[in-house]
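Q: Here's a chain of 309 amino acids. Please give me its 3D structure as tokens.
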Amino acid sequence: MEQFYHESFRTTKQFPMQLRLHQGVINYAVLEHWHRSMEIDYLIDCEVQLMVSGKKTLVQSEEIILINSGDIHALWPERKIGRTQDELFGASIFISYEFLKEICPQFDEVCFVLEGNEEKKEELKHVFDEMIGIYRKEQEEFTYLKMMGLLYRMLYLLFTYFKQVKNQAIIKSQKYMERIQKVMNYVEEHYQEPVTLCQVAAHFNLSMEYLARDFKKHTGSTFREYLDKVRLNHAFELLYGTDYSMLEVAMMSGFADVRSFIKSFKKEHGMTPYQFKKRNKTGTSDRNGVSFADYPHIILQDAQKKKDI
């Protein structure tokens, strides 16, 4: 299962990107997370609420989203996405941080903002369409060379028309965000324990008030809400793929008891874990929950030794 607080993608030096095609029928959110790779998403036929660094935006179909390296982000659909299991509703590209640093040594000092210049944004969409077409129709020995050509074309558009130099406010905000990233990592490593805001604040030598305020600002969730989401996410995976009892799932996911687990699960998913388990066994579940690892995707990468971004 993927790590939800900090996601790692596998690429190679020869092919420093990953393409994911999103298809099927889904109605669940992507938990707050971050990664060093730069992410570009193309919403072909879906509408989502996007949260980046605590700010929420409604993104419509046929729009492109860019997530800068290190930005904490999450998303959830406005409505159930997809009508059939084969329907393509979006695509994502993840570009290696090391590769971006190699082609632009000042990469840490810049960011990309997809505002204005509608003509060039349309070009980005055309590049996406070409990548999707090549992947779906061609899988030959040197297909990756075509993909690399399109990747360089995409980066040319981004660096030429959408690059901005980070101002001092952004740089200062990033320092705070790095601290929140460490807190998120800590939660993922200790979610099975009785973690509290007071304990985490003490661990990082911060005041409770400061951590509570800063965490909400950068993630859009309170510390307690995020902790519950992480625990529910792990519980969701255990319910979906194992035969553990409710007590075992609750304990393994970090809940104090079954009662608190059921209450949190129902609040988040609109049903009790018992109801979810029953629906899942009968094959009627639409997976209306929080899950990132099971996001339908196709990964394009070559067969050489893989490397974490």
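Q: Can you summarize the key feature?
A: The radius of gyration is 20 Å.
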